[in-house]
TrEMBL record, chain A:
This is Inactive transglutaminase family protein. It comes from the Bacteria. It comes from Parahaliea mediterranea. It holds the Pfam family 7TM_transglut. Keywords: Membrane, Transmembrane, Transmembrane helix. The chain crosses the membrane at residues 6-25, 314-332, 344-370, 382-405, 411-430, 442-460, 472-491. Residues 25-184 form the Inactive transglutaminase fused to 7 transmembrane helices domain.
TrEMBL record, chain B:
GO terms for cellular component: cytoplasm. The keyword ATP-binding applies. One of its GO terms (biological process) is SOS response. Keywords: ATP-binding, Ligase, Manganese, Nucleotide-binding. One of its GO terms (molecular function) is ATP binding. The keyword Repressor does not apply. This is Alpha-L-glutamate ligase-like protein. It comes from Parahaliea mediterranea. The lineage of its organism: Bacteria, Pseudomonadati, Pseudomonadota, Gammaproteobacteria, Cellvibrionales. Residues 45-300 form the ATP-grasp domain. SUPFAM superfamilies: Glutathione synthetase ATP-binding domain-like (SSF56059).
């Protein structure tokens, strides 16, 4: 006993000190800040070029972004296993080239950048040129002339005409000319818009880029339309008609030209995975400058592909949640239904936000319990009964999602983030508890579980906690040490101080 | 404001807490591999039979669903019996039939049920409704004990059983759990049953506690606990110590019942006995466990250990915990 205590104490001390030491080293020597502090939104954008091989040599060209609108590129990284690789400058624009003589299997090429927006600049100047008038069929031409005439009559200048055009072409009930043109353009609204603008002698081109959404795995390119209103360039959103560069838009290419060209391949696609880290820009700069010198940094979470980084961002928070469970069970003595069920609920809360999550959870479990009480009359075998509950719970989730969507409550759509199996087991356990111990015990354990889940959620959503676990994963070793110590804690629980209080009352 | 007791006071009173029980005693003295014998009442019974430890007579086991109907059919031959889950915990799922009313069965509460109810109860047990973690289970049918009349006076409906905590072969603390109307015939102290602490030395009651309050009489039957004198006390202690040796657990709760004809019988074993026995005895366990350590180190045989325990744990005059705490 004593020996094992000392052993655990030693192991725990080593773990705690190692974790803290590494953290201190990283802060002191490498300049990684301990607190999130003044942070920059650093985006990691990973582009994936996938294609299947066709006959002959393969030549893939990817136009690289130019960092416009105040964006600063911190780092570029190419993955090109087995391919010849060059970066060329074609007319002031960098272009990546992957080449290979033969290829026999589907391939994905990666290009990763880290970027942040240093200041919210507009786009710089650009040579003004009106595109050539499009060549059109006779009937298209008439429709185009009529459309442009209408637009010009009802607008005051190039800017207002462009906005009017966007509104016009986005309407459900577009006029006959617009509808016909849209139809003959095969639905490519942006090409039609550019042609209309060219027809009206307004200088315009497309701007391609990415809508930045944290955690998106398969984002594709979006398009903005830029027009010259006589004095300045103006950006327009072809869907909403909004003016200006949206905050969440990362410009990849301005002006005509394709971004991806694949020769010798088919079914090619370009997708982006995005992760946003709120980091002091200094951190990232430090990392970029020093990652070659310090292997430690090269082996940090940042070295992983973006998708995995996103997953780890959530995963590294789980130990913190389990730590909350340890404290509440061992120190406080809260009764929960299932040891780590509250952690899973807390993770779901992160996706749904707290109040919405609580409401969804309570309504699902409530209705589930009600239906389960009916099932218990049927005297079913256990596995069949639990499966029945799983099916019922999933149907309830679907009903909840559909009904709330129809009612305009989009938040309830996040119901899908609740793990259905966990919900079903919760319902099952609670209902057995109800039959055996009565509603009182259900209330105690249910409340206990929710308290633990809510606390775990609150702790996980503290920015500092996320910052620390992601940037200093070695702190988890310290956490492990503390958990080991708790495993040997023999003191009283808070609940016991309450339970035994009656005994010492004078009667 | 919620009133709490200070942890310092609890420690001075020697009250054993859940964490210390789990780490210091269960985790240390109860090897995981031996739990099977305790958690499964059939295994317990078989092992007890081999060692000559008396247990209630077994009428049969229902292992599969198809056996339910013939087994219930066979029960028409019997006047009284008990159906319980083999892996049940905390007295859950125990159906006690005390008599017959034509083709119907009379439960201990007096309610009359038909054969359908028995079949349903048996299927529920098989499906794991009452078992640890909801695992599939078996149902066992045992003879109903002919309670010692001495004990019957102290119980309302349910089964009055004697819980003895045995630590390293030394009986350290004992109590009787008396079901009451408030506890709905169940023997759980937190549900309102009366816990009667029993003096290890004499087999006489030390104190009786209901919901944390000292009582002198059973609230339903009106029997005075002062008149309680457990017969066969030495045998009860020997039986409990024998069980500890049988199952290999160093920290064990043995539940024993008294039969009118055959004396003490083992009902079931518990590898994680609860802490409320301390309240029933108005004494903390920690001090006794320390003394038991000395006894276990000093003596090797059960007989010597029991004799020494009866000597050391004899309570002359019970001092309520409240007074003990006030004196601190």
């Amino acid at each position: 006993m004593v020996a094992s205590r000392i052993q655990i104490g030693l192991v725990a001390a080593v773990l705690i000190l190692f974790g803290l030491g590494l953290t201190l080293y990283k802060t002191a020597r490498l300049g990684l800040p301990l607190l999130p502090g003044e942070s920059r939104e650093v985006w990691t954008i990973e582009s994936k070029v996938s294609f299947k091989p066709a006959a002959g040599p393969v030549d893939v060209a990817l136009q690289l972004p130019q960092a416009l609108g105040g964006w600063v590129l911190l780092d570029e990284h190419f993955a090109s296993s087995g391919f010849g690789f060059t970066v060329e400058d074609s007319g002031g624009r960098p272009r990546a080239n992957w080449t290979r003589q033969t290829l026999d299997h589907p391939t994905t090429l990666y290009y990763k950048i880290q970027a942040y927006r240093a200041n919210r600049d507009g786009l710089p100047g650009f040579p003004v040129a009106v595109a050539d008038k499009p060549r059109l069929e006779a009937d298209q031409l008439t429709a185009m002339e009529r459309l442009v005439e209408v637009l010009q009559e009802t607008s005051t200048g190039p800017g207002s005409m462009a906005r009017l055009m966007i509104q016009h072409l986005n309407r459900e009930e577009a006029g006959p000319d617009a509808a016909f043109l849209l139809d003959s353009y095969g639905g490519s609204r942006e090409s039609l818009m550019l042609d209309v603008l060219a027809f009206a002698d307004i200088p315009a081109h497309r701007v391609q880029g990415i809508r930045l959404q944290d955690g998106r795995r398969r984002q594709t390119l979006s398009v903005l339309i830029e027009i010259h209103d006589g004095s300045d360039w103006q950006l327009l959103d072809p869907d909403t008609g909004e003016v200006g560069l949206p905050d969440d838009f990362f410009v990849w290419q301005r002006g005509p030209g394709t971004i991806l060209r694949v020769v010798g391949g088919r079914d090619s696609s370009l997708e982006f995975a995005l992760v946003n880290n709120s980091l002091p820009a200094k951190t990232v700069v430090t990392m970029e400058q020093q990652s070659d010198q310090f292997a430690l940094l090269d082996f940090s979470i940042y070295a992983l592909p973006v998708e995995q980084q996103g997953i780890f961002k959530g995963l590294l928070l789980v130990p913190v949640a389990t730590f909350v469970v340890v404290i509440l069970r061992i120190l406080v003595g809260l009764k929960t239904s299932g040891t780590f069920m509250p952690v899973l609920i807390a993770i779901a809360f992160i996706q749904t936000t707290l109040w919405v999550g609580l409401a969804i959870f309570l309504s699902l479990v409530g209705v589930g319990l009600w239906i389960r009480s009916w099932l218990s009359h049927l005297n079913l075998l256990l596995v069949a009964r639990v499966s029945a509950v799983v099916i019922v719970v999933i149907l309830l989730m679907a009903v909840l999602a559909v009904v709330s969507y129809k009612l305009g409550l989009d938040q309830a759509l996040t119901v899908t983030f609740f793990p259905a199996i966990i919900l079903s087991w919760t319902v099952e356990r609670m209902s057995i508890l109800w039959e055996e111990e009565g509603g009182h015990e259900v209330l105690i354990q249910g409340t206990g579980s929710l308290i633990v889940a809510v606390l775990a959620y609150l702790v996980m959503s503290i920015p500092v906690v996320e910052h620390l676990t992601f940037n200093f994963p070695e702190l988890l070793l310290s956490l492990l040490g503390v958990v080991l110590l708790f495993g040997k804690y023999t003191g009283y629980r808070l609940s016991e101080l309450y339970r035994f209080r009656e005994m010492v009352k004078q009667q | 404001m919620i009133q709490l007791i200070s942890p310092r006071k609890l420690r001075k009173l020697g009250i054993l807490g859940m964490n210390r029980r789990n780490v210091g005693y269960i985790g240390r003295y109860n090897p995981r591999g031996y739990y099977r014998l305790v958690d499964n009442k059939l295994h317990t019974k078989t092992a007890a039979l081999e060692r000559g430890i008396p247990t209630p007579e077994m009428y049969g086991v229902i292992e599969y669903q198809f056996q339910v109907a013939p087994m219930v059919e066979a029960l028409f031959e019997r006047d009284s019996f008990v159906i319980k889950p083999v892996q049940g915990s905390g007295g859950k799922g125990i159906l006690v039939i005390t008599g017959r009313d034509g083709d119907h069965f009379v439960k201990s509460s007096g309610a009359v049920v038909d054969a359908d109810a028995l079949r349903r109860h048996a299927s529920n047990i098989l499906a794991g409704l009452h078992s640890l973690g909801g695992r599939n289970d078996q149902a066992m049918i045992e003879a109903l004990l002919d309670f010692d009349p001495m004990m019957a006076r102290y119980s309302h409906e349910g089964v009055p059983d004697i819980r003895v905590i045995v630590y390293r072969g030394v009986p350290v603390m004992a109590m009787i759990r008396c079901a009451t109307h408030a506890s709905d015939g169940k023997a759980n102290l937190h549900q309102g049953a009366v816990g009667v602490g029993i003096d290890i030395g004499s087999g006489r009651p030390v104190a009786a506690v209901q919901q944390g309050r000292l009582v002198t009489h059973h609230p339903d039957t009106g029997a005075s606990f002062d008149d309680l004198q457990l017969p066969y006390w030495q045998q009860i202690l020997e039986l409990a110590a024998g069980c500890a040796e049988m199952c290999g657990l160093g920290y064990l709760g043995a539940d024993i019942v008294l039969d009118r004809q055959q004396g003490p019988m083992l009902l079931e074993l518990n590898a994680r006995p609860g802490l409320s026995i301390q309240v029933a005895n108005q004494e903390g366990l920690i001090g006794r466990l320390k003394i038991a350590d000395e006894i276990a180190d000093e003596f090797d045989t059960d007989a010597e250990r029991i004799a020494r325990a009866r000597e050391r744990f004899s309570v002359g005059r019970m001092v309520p915990l409240a007074e003990q705490a006030a004196a601190l």
